[in-house]
Design a protein that fits this description.
Number of strands: 7
Radius of gyration: 24 Å
Shape: globular
Order of helices and strands: HHEHEHEHEHEHEHHEHHHHHHHHH
Structural class: alpha/beta
Largest sheet: 7 strands, mixed
Distance between the termini: 72 Å
Helix content: 55-70%
Strand content: 5-15%
Length: 501
């Protein structure tokens, strides 16, 4: 039993470290947020960038709902036509191929320099597609946009001046949102992403810590990419991998928070889980791949430590789940470690505070405190409820289990009235929903037991688990029921129409 107590103590202590890391990023952001954003001044070098040749790469795979929106937005980028090349790197296996072919043909007739690039297989997934495109890319700078993004026309004019600093290898901009008010799920996701870009990326950039290119809405210096080995498909987060390899070889990544590129948020809970799974597994794969190199690099200790916490951030979900599972035996024997856990739990204020500060920056003043608290509560519940999904991802990464790169389906849902349930891209309910339901019941049982024996300091901790797993299970089952009902109605309507005809 002592072994279980020690593991419980260690998991809680490590979890507190990640909470303190969130607090640290928040404090750094608050100290630097009022400083004017560093905007590149006009120099002969920056003026020369107006003549730079840029290749824009658009990796897509089965994106019939959003691919036209993406291509049209990129075609309207304000950059001289003779110095702009657009590559649609299309790995699709459905009617997206025909849609891309048609819009590319139309744009080419109108003078746009755009190519529809197909390859014989999907080896390497997104990393493979980007690498394949590099074989025919002519640009000195490579901009990348995923299918769900809509870049503004002035994107290149506002980002390229940063490359007047020869040490800059990559520029990342801030993600915005096309559909943040569609549902509670999209509101929570918007807040979570805003927390990363508003506080975390801003804090890291201010400190000169390791940053990451987020896979889209950014632009790379080609010579940097080639020097550090280019895209590699041995992790599910090829963007994070390339970012760290570049910085470990002396290049810098800069973040421009004043440039926003909006994107579509997943409206289906299982699509969101798939996205989180890929990010969690890929980040731990990257930590395994580059962790030793990071600590051997001639970098300050603080930079190595912050980089490690950055790469391993998704371990927090594994630690949360381990903490909950071990809580029953620890509570049953009245372990003294329970009191220490209460002390460590103070660090749990870190993530909620980070997102509260984010709301103060991103939400209009007209949004009431009650609404803000509700949004924060849903985000905390959702983050806790992801523990099973992301723990599976973490364990697969740690044990070296391979898995395919599975894209996050998008449905072009930008308002509450948009329908997505009849799309063939919808995902079935994942098996984790049942485990989430079981753990919700388990957490409620522990809560009742803890209160009955006077362990009142466990109340908020257990409430977070109970509400988190309950919320995730509810969303999974509710959307599955909605999908089945919609499809049944659709089939019935098809039968009636067929009989009438």
């Amino acid at each position: 039993m002592l072994f279980i107590e020690i593991i419980y103590f260690l998991s809680t202590a490590l979890l507190a470290v990640y909470g303190i890391h969130a607090l640290f990023n928040t404090v750094v952001y608050l100290r630097n947020r009022d400083k004017p954003a560093a905007k590149t001044t006009t120099t002969p070098e920056s003026e020369a960038l107006d003549l730079a040749f840029v290749t824009v790469q658009l990796p897509v795979y089965n994106e019939r709902h959003v691919v036209n929106r993406l291509i049209e937005a990129v075609a309207h980028l304000d950059w001289p036509a003779d110095r702009l090349q657009i590559q649609v790197l299309d790995d699709s296996s459905d009617d997206t191929v025909q849609m891309v072919a048609e819009v590319v043909a139309r744009l080419r007739r109108n003078g746009t320099r755009i190519e529809h690039v197909r390859r014989p297989d999907r080896v390497g997934y997104k990393a493979g597609a980007l690498t394949y495109g590099m074989q025919t890319a002519k640009g000195e700078y490579i901009a990348i946009f995923d299918a769900d993004f809509v870049p503004p026309p002035d994107f290149l004019h506002r980002t390229l001046p940063s490359f007047s600093d020869p040490a800059i290898g990559c520029v990342q901009t801030r993600w915005g949102h096309l559909n943040p008010e569609v549902s509670h799920l999209t509101r929570a996701q918007a807040l979570g992403i805003d927390g990363h870009f508003t506080v975390e990326q801003h804090a890291r950039n201010s400190l000169g810590a390791f940053l990451n290119f987020n896979g889209t809405a950014g632009i790379w210096r080609r010579s940097c990419m080639e020097q550090v080995g280019g895209w590699q498909g041995d992790t599910l987060t090829e963007d994070l991998d390339l970012s760290y390899r570049a910085q470990l070889q002396g290049w810098r990544i800069t973040y421009l928070p004043y440039i926003e590129v909006p994107a579509e948020l997943p409206v289906q809970i299982d699509a969101f889980k798939r996205q989180q799974f890929r990010w969690a597994k890929g980040s731990i794969q990257t930590a395994k791949k580059l962790g030793i190199s990071l600590w051997r690099a001639p970098q300050p200790l603080w930079r190595k430590a912050l980089g490690t916490l950055h790469l391993t951030g998704y371990l927090a979900h594994f630690l949360m789940l381990l903490n909950l599972v071990l809580l029953l035996p620890v509570m049953f024997i009245r372990s003294p470690f329970l009191w220490l856990t209460g002390v460590f739990s103070v660090a749990a204020i870190g993530p909620p505070l980070l997102y509260w500060v984010t709301m103060q920056t991103r939400l209009p003043a007209s949004v009431s405190k009650t609404t803000r608290l509700a949004r924060l509560g849903i985000l905390v519940a959702m983050g806790t409820g992801l523990a099973i999904n992301n723990t599976k991802a973490v364990l697969e990464a740690l044990t070296g289990r391979e898995s395919a790169f599975k894209r996050t389906p998008k449905f072009a849902v930008t308002n509450k009235g948009s329908a997505w349930q009849t799309s063939s891209y919808t995902l079935p309910r994942g098996p984790t929903a049942w485990l989430e339901l079981v753990l919700a019941i388990y957490a409620v049982s522990l809560l009742i037991y803890g209160l009955s024996v006077g362990m009142w300091w466990m109340f908020l901790w257990l409430m977070m688990y109970a509400s988190g797993f309950s919320y995730m299970a509810y969303l999974s089952f509710a959307q599955a029921f909605q999908l089945n009902a919609t499809r049944s109605t659709h089939r019935l309507s098809s039968i009636v129409s067929s009989e009438n005809s």
